[in-house]
Design the sequence.
C-alpha cells in the first residue's frame, strides 16, 4: 500500500465517525468537550454554525452519528450525542450577541425561498449575513415546516421551536407567510435573482382498501393529521385507533392519539419488527406508553357497519426469501385478524408534489417526479432554481435538509457573484498538537468506562394527559458530564512521522485495542489478514507509513482506536503525536 | 512513565485461549519504565507467550533481582506468584523456591548488572546446578537505573551517551551459560517478537535450565549510534540463525518447509520447536560450534540470535539430587520429620 496522504482533509475527517456520518458534518467531539467544560453557550454555537437548529435537533434528530459512533464498536452503546446537543441548548446563555451581523446595506441580490422549513431557513441564515435580500414564502401562516407540523409538541416544545426559528427570521427575512405559490412560471417572471425550493414532501399516502369511500372521514393521512393536530384543528380522536405504518410518523401518530382520547391505540406493521423504519428510541417510547405494535399484519379492508367504521381486517403473513434472496411476505393461512376501531391513521409514507411547477419552463423532473439536480450544487436544470431538503431528493430528515440548505446557499452565492457554481471551496481544517507536557495533553484522554446514561422521562401518568408536555426531561448537568466522559475524542488524531520512528514497539505493546502493527508492506487485503489483530472492518481505513529503517511499515487500523494517546505517551521519539483535527464544511460565508 | 490507566476496552475479536482468557488477562500493572524501553517489549512477549500457551497464571512464579529489568515482573502476569530479591541474589531464591515446589513454572528476570556484575557468581551457580527454569536477562549494556554507566556486557569500543568508551571486552552471558552447562541457550532482541515469543515458549517448556539473553535497548541512556546495544545497531546487525516456531504439545504441526533447511525438536512435554530457514545447516546440539558461532559473529560486529544450543539429555537439580516425586511443599510434618527412631537409624549408618 502507498503511504496514507494525511494532508487530504477527508482522511482524518473519516476517522471522526460521528462527524463523517452527520449530513451537516457537525464537529461533534469538539462540542462534547465544551459541554464537559460546562461551556454550554460555546457548545451551542459550534452546533448552530453547523446544523442551525441545535435545540430542535437535540430532541428530534434521526442521529445518523450514533450508529456510526466508535464507542459502539468497543462496547455496546454509542455516546448519546443527540441528547448532549440538547444539553448545550438547554443550558446555554443568551446567544443573541453571537449571531452574525446582517449588513444594513444590501448587496442588491434578491432571493426567493419557497417553503419555510429547515432547508429554506438554512439558506436564509447563510445568505442574510452576506447582504442578500430574502423573501420567504410559506403556505401556512407560520414558519417551521415539518418541524412544526409533523413533530408533536410532547417531543418538541413550541418555545424551543420558535426560539430557533426566530434567530433566523429576526435577521431580517421578508416573510410572506400564508401565501401559497401556485405558479413557478409567474414567480420566475418577478425580479428574483435566484429561487430556492424547500417545500418538503407534503403529500401523505392513504390506503384505498374496500370500505374506504364509505368511511373516508374516519381515515386520516398521518402527516396531514399531525399538522391538523399541531394547528389545533383536530383536538380529539375516537377511543379505538389503529395506526398503519412502521416509521417515525406512525410512532408520532400513535402517541398523539393516546393524548387526544385514544384509549386503545394499536400500531399495525406489514413487515417484521426488524424492518421497521422508525428509530429504535421512538419505538421504545411508543411501547413505553403501552401501545402494542403488531408486526406481519397486512391491512385488507375497512369494516363498515351502518355507514360507520367499526374495525379493520388484517391478514397475517410471515417473511420468506425468494430465490433471488428478496424478502417476500407470504400469508400464514391463519384466520384474518379483526381489530375494532373508530379511526384509522395511515402513516405509510409521503411523497413529493410539484403541481405548481410548470413542466415547460426548463426545470426537468425524473421518472419519480423529483427534480433533476446536480447532487453537489443542488442546482436544477434551470440555472436560477435550486432545491433542497425533502423537495430535492425525496423524504429524509431535518439534518439532511440543513445540509442541503448549506450547499444550496453556497451555490446561490457563487451563482449570484457570477462564479462557477460547481467550483466548491475546500473545507476549513486545522491539525494542532495537543501535547502540553511530557505526559499532559490538552484533552482528557482518560476515558470513562461508564455505560450509556439514560435520559430521564417525565411520568407517563402526567405526559399522557397533556399533549404539550415534553416527555423527555433531558440530561441534567451532572448526567450530561458523565455522558461526555464517554466520548473517545476521535478528532484528536494519532499522527505518525515515519522519519522519527526507531521501531521500539512501545506503541504496539501499550495499545489497548491492538491497532498498531509494524510489518512488511503488502496489498490492503493481504495486510488486513496479518496485522496484530483482525482488521476486517473494511469501511475503516488503514493508516500506512512510509518505509522504516527495517524496510517494514507502520500500519494502524483506525477501526478500534480509542484515541487514548498512550501510543504517543510511550513513544520515545515523538514519532506519534496527538493532534486535534477540526473540520468545518465551507459555507457561503467562506466563499 | 504515564499517568492514565490503560483503558479496559479491548479488541472485540481478541482470541481467547483454552482457559477462556485473552492476552489482556495476562497483563500486569502499567509500566513505569521510560517509553520505548526494550524491557516493555519483553513484558509484552512474555504476556503473549503465556497467553498462547494457555498457562495458568497461578502456576507461574516470577523472580527478579534489582534494576530496571527486575522491575518488569510487575508489568506482566499480574496474577502469578512473584518474588523481588536482593540485588544479584535472585538465583538463590529461585533455587530455594524450585526445591520447595518443583511443579511451578519458574521465570527469572534479571539484567546485565544483576547477572553479569553483582550477581555473576550466583548466575554461574544456578546454571551449574541446573535449576528447571527459564532465566531471561534483559541486556542493555548499561546501568540505566543509575543513569547510564557502562555495564559488564557493553562491547569493547561501545560508547555511552556521554561518550565514555568501553575499554574491556564484554562478558557474554550466552557463551558463559553454554560453558557452565545450561541445556537451552538462546539470544534474541526485544524488538523482534516473532523470534522472541517462540523462544520464551520453548524455554518455558524445556526441562532444565533455559537461558535467553535478550538485547533490550535502553532508550534513554544507551541508544546512540555509537552504542552496540541501541535499536539501530541491533536492527542492522541482528543475525538470526533460523526462524523459530513453537508448537504446543496439543497442536498438530501443519506448516511444511523445504527439506534440509528445517529441524523439529520435540521437548519433554511433547511440544515442538520448529526451526526453519536454518543457515549453513547449523547444529543446535553442538556446544563447541555454538560458542564458535557466537564468537565469529561478535568478531564481525554481528549479533548471533536464535536458539543457539539445546541439550535434552541433561538432568535437572531434582534428578541429580534424587528427590522424591512429590514436591516438598505438599509433604506433611510426619513425612518431613519422621521422628527420633528414623534419625537414630540415619546416625547409626554413619558410625
Sequence:
Amino acid at each position: 500500500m502507498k503511504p496514507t496522504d494525511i494532508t487530504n482533509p477527508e482522511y482524518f475527517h473519516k476517522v471522526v465517525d460521528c462527524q463523517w456520518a452527520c449530513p451537516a458534518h457537525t464537529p461533534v467531539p469538539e462540542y462534547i468537550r465544551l459541554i464537559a467544560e460546562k461551556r454550554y453557550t460555546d457548545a451551542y454555537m459550534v452546533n448552530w454554525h453547523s446544523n442551525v437548529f441545535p435545540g430542535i435537533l437535540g430532541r428530534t434528530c434521526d442521529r445518523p452519528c450514533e450508529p456510526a459512533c466508535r464507542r459502539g464498536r468497543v462496547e455496546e452503546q454509542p455516546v448519546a450525542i443527540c441528547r448532549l446537543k440538547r444539553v448545550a441548548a438547554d443550558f446555554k446563555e443568551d446567544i443573541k450577541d453571537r449571531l452574525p451581523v446582517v449588513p444594513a446595506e444590501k448587496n442588491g441580490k434578491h432571493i426567493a425561498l419557497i417553503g419555510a422549513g429547515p432547508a429554506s431557513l438554512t439558506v436564509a441564515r447563510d445568505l442574510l449575513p452576506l447582504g442578500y435580500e430574502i423573501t420567504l414564502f410559506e403556505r401556512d401562516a407560520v414558519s417551521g415546516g415539518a418541524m412544526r407540523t409533523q413533530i408533536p409538541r410532547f417531543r418538541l416544545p413550541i418555545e424551543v421551536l420558535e426560539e430557533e426559528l426566530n434567530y433566523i427570521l429576526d435577521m431580517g427575512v421578508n416573510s410572506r407567510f400564508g401565501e401559497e405559490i401556485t405558479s413557478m412560471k409567474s414567480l420566475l417572471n418577478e425580479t428574483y435573482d435566484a429561487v430556492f425550493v424547500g417545500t418538503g414532501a407534503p403529500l401523505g399516502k392513504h390506503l384505498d382498501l374496500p370500505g374506504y369511500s364509505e368511511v373516508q372521514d374516519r381515515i386520516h393521512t398521518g402527516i396531514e393529521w399531525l399538522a391538523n393536530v399541531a394547528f389545533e384543528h383536530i383536538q380529539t380522536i375516537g377511543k379505538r385507533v389503529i395506526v398503519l405504518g412502521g416509521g417515525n410518523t406512525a410512532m408520532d401518530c400513535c402517541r398523539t392519539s393516546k393524548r387526544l382520547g385514544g384509549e386503545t391505540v394499536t400500531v399495525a406493521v406489514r413487515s417484521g419488527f426488524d424492518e421497521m423504519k422508525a428509530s429504535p428510541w421512538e419505538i421504545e417510547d411508543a411501547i413505553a406508553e403501552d401501545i402494542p405494535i403488531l408486526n406481519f399484519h397486512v391491512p385488507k379492508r375497512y369494516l363498515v357497519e351502518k355507514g360507520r367504521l367499526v374495525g379493520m381486517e388484517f391478514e397475517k403473513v410471515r417473511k420468506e426469501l425468494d430465490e433471488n434472496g428478496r424478502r417476500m411476505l407470504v400469508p400464514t393461512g391463519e384466520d384474518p385478524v379483526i381489530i375494532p376501531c373508530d379511526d384509522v391513521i395511515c402513516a405509510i409514507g409521503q411523497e413529493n408534489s410539484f403541481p405548481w411547477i410548470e413542466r415547460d419552463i426548463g426545470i426537468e423532473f425524473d421518472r419519480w417526479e423529483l427534480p433533476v439536480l446536480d447532487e453537489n450544487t443542488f442546482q436544477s436544470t434551470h440555472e436560477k432554481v435550486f432545491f433542497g431538503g425533502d423537495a430535492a431528493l425525496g423524504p429524509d430528515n431535518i439534518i439532511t435538509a440543513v445540509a442541503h440548505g448549506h450547499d444550496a446557499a453556497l451555490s446561490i452565492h457563487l451563482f449570484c457573484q457570477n462564479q462557477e457554481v460547481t467550483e466548491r471551496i475546500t473545507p476549513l481544517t486545522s491539525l494542532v498538537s495537543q501535547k502540553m507536557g511530557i505526559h499532559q495533553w490538552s484533552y482528557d484522554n482518560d476515558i470513562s468506562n461508564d455505560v450509556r446514561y439514560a435520559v430521564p422521562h417525565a411520568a407517563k401518568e402526567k405526559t399522557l394527559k397533556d399533549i404539550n408536555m415534553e416527555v423527555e426531561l433531558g440530561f441534567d448537568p451532572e448526567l450530561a458530564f458523565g455522558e461526555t466522559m464517554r466520548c473517545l475524542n476521535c478528532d484528536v488524531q494519532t499522527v505518525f512521522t515515519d522519519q522519527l520512528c526507531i521501531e521500539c514497539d512501545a506503541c504496539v505493546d501499550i495499545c489497548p485495542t491492538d491497532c498498531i502493527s509494524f510489518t512488511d508492506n503488502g496489498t490492503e487485503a493481504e495486510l488486513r489478514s496479518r496485522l496484530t489483530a483482525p482488521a476486517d472492518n473494511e469501511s475503516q481505513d488503514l493508516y500506512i507509513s512510509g518505509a522504516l529503517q527495517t524496510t517494514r511499515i507502520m500500519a494502524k487500523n483506525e477501526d478500534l482506536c480509542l484515541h487514548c494517546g498512550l501510543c504517543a505517551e510511550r513513544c520515545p521519539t515523538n514519532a506519534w503525536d496527538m493532534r486535534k483535527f477540526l473540520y468545518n464544511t465551507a459555507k457561503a460565508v467562506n466563499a | 512513565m504515564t499517568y492514565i490507566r490503560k483503558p479496559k476496552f479491548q479488541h472485540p475479536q481478541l482470541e481467547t485461549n483454552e482457559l477462556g482468557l485473552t492476552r489482556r488477562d495476562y497483563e500486569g500493572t502499567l509500566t513505569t519504565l521510560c517509553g520505548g524501553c526494550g524491557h516493555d517489549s519483553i513484558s509484552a512477549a512474555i504476556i503473549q507467550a503465556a497467553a498462547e500457551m494457555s498457562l495458568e497464571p497461578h502456576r507461574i512464579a516470577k523472580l527478579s533481582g534489582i534494576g530496571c529489568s527486575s522491575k518488569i515482573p510487575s508489568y506482566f502476569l499480574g496474577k502469578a506468584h512473584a518474588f523481588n530479591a536482593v540485588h544479584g541474589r535472585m538465583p538463590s531464591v529461585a533455587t530455594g523456591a524450585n526445591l520447595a515446589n518443583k511443579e511451578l513454572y519458574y521465570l527469572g528476570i534479571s539484567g546485565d548488572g544483576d547477572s553479569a556484575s553483582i550477581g555473576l557468581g550466583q548466575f554461574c551457580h544456578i546454571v551449574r546446578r541446573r535449576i528447571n527454569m527459564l532465566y531471561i536477562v534483559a541486556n542493555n549494556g548499561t546501568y540505566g537505573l543509575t543513569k547510564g554507566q557502562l555495564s559488564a556486557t557493553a562491547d569493547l569500543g561501545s560508547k555511552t551517551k556521554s561518550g565514555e568508551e568501553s575499554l574491556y571486552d564484554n562478558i557474554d552471558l550466552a557463551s558463559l551459560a553454554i560453558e557452565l552447562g545450561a541445556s537451552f541457550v538462546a539470544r534474541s532482541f526485544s524488538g523482534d517478537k516473532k523470534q522472541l515469543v517462540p523462544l520464551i515458549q520453548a524455554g518455558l517448556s524445556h526441562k532444565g535450565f533455559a537461558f535467553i539473553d535478550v538485547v533490550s535497548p535502553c532508550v534513554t541512556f544507551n541508544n546512540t549510534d555509537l552504542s552496540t546495544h541501541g535499536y539501530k545497531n541491533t536492527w542492522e546487525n541482528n543475525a538470526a540463525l533460523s526462524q523459530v516456531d513453537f508448537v504446543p504439545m496439543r497442536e498438530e504441526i501443519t506448516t511444511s518447509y523445504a527439506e534440509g533447511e528445517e529441524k523439529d525438536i520435540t521437548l519433554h512435554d511433547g511440544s515442538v520447536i520448529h526451526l526453519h530457514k536454518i543457515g549453513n545447516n547449523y547444529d543446535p546440539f553442538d556446544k563447541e560450534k555454538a560458542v564458535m558461532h557466537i564468537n565469529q559473529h561478535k568478531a564481525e560486529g554481528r549479533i548471533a540470535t536464535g536458539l543457539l544450543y539445546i541439550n535434552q539429555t541433561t538432568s535437572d537439580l531434582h534428578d541429580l539430587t534424587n528427590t522424591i516425586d512429590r514436591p516438598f511443599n505438599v509433604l506433611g510434618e510426619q513425612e518431613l520429620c519422621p521422628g527420633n527412631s528414623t534419625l537414630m537409624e540415619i546416625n547409626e549408618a554413619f558410625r
Residues 398-416 of chain A form the longest helix (19 residues). Chain A has 22 helices and 24 strands. The CA atoms of residues 3 and 319 of chain A lie 47 Å apart. The longest strand of chain A covers residues 308-321.
